[in-house]
Amino acid sequence: MCQVVLLVADLAEKLGIAIIAAIPMKMDQYRTSTSGQARRDHHWREAVLSITLPEVLVRGTDKKNQYQYEQLGVLLARRSHILLALWDGQTEPESSRKLGGTSDVVRIRQEGTRRSAGLCRSELFDDADTSLDATGNDPIVRVHTPRASAACCGPDLCDAGSVFVLNTAGMQPEYLVHPPGSVPDLLSAAMASTWAPLAAFNGRIRDFDTSDMSIFRMSKEYLRSTPLPPIPEVLDLTDDLKGFQAAADAAAQYFQGALLGHFAPANPRPEPKLGRGLFTALFGRPARLLGMIDRSRSTWRDHRRRPRLGVVFLFALAIPAIAAIVEWYVHFHGGLTAIFLYLFATLGGLGYYFGRVEKREWQNRFQDYRGVAEALRVQLYWGLAAVPRAVSEHYPPRHRDETAWIKACLRGPSLWALALALKLPAPCQQAVTRGWIQDQQDYFKKRAAVHKHSARSSEEWARKFLLAGFFFAFLLLGYELLDEFKEMTDAKAHLRHILHEYHKPLEAAAIVSPAIAAAFRISSEYRNHEPHLHAYTAMWAIFGRARVKAEAIGLHPFESKSASRFQDLVFLTGREALAENAEWLASHRLRLLEPKP
To answer: How many other C-beta atoms lie within 10 A of the C-beta of residue 184?
Structure first.
């Protein structure tokens, strides 16, 4: 660890900034190539996370240590939000460039990772993309630190301590910042699209109330991770990763409740024996209705949070409600009360949407936080499988501009997962198979069944109310036709009298019934029942195949390649889960939640 890095670590400690320490090789070997042993060991002990990178398996070359430093340089370039380079800005020729040196790390940050003999044999980056996979517009802050032997070439540009910003969105390749203290504001403005959502996410987690903490604890307990080797560092890292995932899940559930409500479709509970026929006649499938009621009751019972109807329910209900209010005003003399209710339903709904739902980005935050939670689930079990990969580097590039902050958010936890993967003596096959693969298979199976029934039920009720609207319209048609008959029999006169007496209610029913049918269709569209059904069915099959293969590998624990085969299986399964999550995000972003005209 060079003296410059130690100076930065000293300053971070003075400012109370937590340190993550990473070294390119084992400490015994690293000590022989650096100075400042006492300070280095102090920061290593005080770091919130310490990572010793694995050996790059390149033999028969004098560049082995350079490949180790190159691996560290790629880690810094790809996993940091801001790259702070204490550098004179001088780039060495390609032929003499030092792998893992400052200029090489800056180049990787700007141009992307290029495959080399070392990276091809690094278990962290052996699948690293080509130079097309640059880190994008993530900023580089360069503090000008000229070598003592270099002559100053100007009063400002080359003064030691001059600060430059490189590779930031909307800026030139190198931008001199003056005064240097304005760097934070400059970066915040330039990276607002990435950092503002990240700050909002952190703020939401920081402001958890009692009910949020209850959901957090339940989500954390839900992540099964046993058995684990009795290594304190492994247990602590696993607990940290579970905490990251549970926090994101609790944040997502808050906005999910606001949007979809707590009376959402749920798994059925057994039908009541007493009065089953009456319940079935009234509700069709009482078990589903009771399951929804149970789910909403559990919100208060388990988390002390008031069950919410949700924006989807309110927007869907607004259509038949407005139609009924109009009928009340036109045919039943609703007067000022009906006009007031009409304005409240229409203007109030629009004001609620633009003033709260859209302004506070409920839809995007629910979707994005759910995406973060699912990606962190994959990251946790990659770590438990001793797979030293980062989900931030394998998250599909769908809606890259809108989800860039998600990849940035995942970089920090990926370091904890990397440390966990490197601490494990072997993959935790049982914990990963039962806690993730089997659990996800069961989850997707149940959710596919729920969405299948909900889609069919919504379609069925929409069809029933639409047919009811036609029925009432035909009754009105019959009433009008009876007036055309010159000769009126007693039966026709009696029928006409009945229709005349109920003429206004029939008109209201003929208009409101199709509106209720539309409400069922809109609710089903908002909840994405059909897309979810297809996606969950596909994921159920994928995790089912993964479970069979994982259990087959587990039958041969002494096979020399069984651990590697299991790791490959977990890695590929995780990529499928990330791809499904990206598709989920894409499908929801195409279905904006907004009041229907």
So the answer is: 10
In the chain, what are the domain boundaries? 53-190
- Beta bridge partners of residue 85, listed in sequence order: 142
Q: Grade residue 279 by pLDDT with cuts at 50, 70 and 90.
A: very low
Kindly report the CA angle at 90 between 85 and 94, in degrees rounded to 5?
A: 105
Q: Is 241 exposed, middle or buried (0-12, 13-18, 19+ CB in 10 A)?
A: buried
Q: And the tokens for 222?
A: 């839900």
The helix-helix angle for 529-554 and 503-527 (nearest 10°) equals 30
For residue 168, give the amino acid letter. Answer: T
Residue 593, SS3? coil
Question: CA–CA separation, 428 vs 226, rounded Å?
Answer: 8
d(CA 521, CA 316): 9
**For 261, left (φ over 0), alpha (ψ -120 to 50), or beta?**
left
Q: What is the pLDDT of residues 88-136, one digit of tens each?
A: 888 777 666 788 888 888 888 887 777 777 788 888 887 765 544 545 5
Write down the H helix ranges in 397-528: 400-423, 429-432, 439-482, 490-501, 503-527
Task: List the Cα angle 285/287/289 in 5-degree steps.
Answer: 75
The answer to whether 433 and 546 have CB atoms below 8 angstroms apart is: no
Residues 92 and 103 sit within 8 Å (Cβ to Cβ): yes
Distance (Å, rounded) from C-alpha 30 to C-alpha 139? 29
What average pLDDT does the segment 73-102 reach? 83
Backbone phi, psi, residue 526, to 5°:
-65, -40
Supply the DSSP symbol for 93: P
Termini Cα distance of the chain: 64
**Cα of 93 vs its chain's centroid, Å:** 42
Q: How far apart (Å, rounded) are the C-alpha atoms in residues 572 and 556?
A: 20
Torsion of CA 540, 544, 550, 552, to 10 degrees: 180
Residue 270, classed as helix, strand or coil, is coil
* Residue predicted with more confidence, 505 or 241: 241
Residues 56 and 68 sit within 8 Å (Cβ to Cβ): yes
What is d(CA 185, CA 480) in angstroms, rounded to the nearest whole number? Answer: 73
**What gap in Å lies between CA 532 and CA 524, rounded to an integer?**
11
Helix (H) or strand (E) holding 190: helix 183-190
Rounded distance between C-alpha atoms, residue 321 and residue 522, angstroms = 14
CA distances (Å), 291 to each of 67, 103, 257, in order?
Answer: 58, 61, 16
Distance CA 202, CA 131 (A): 32
Share of the chain above pLDDT 70, in %: 82
pLDDT at 171: 58
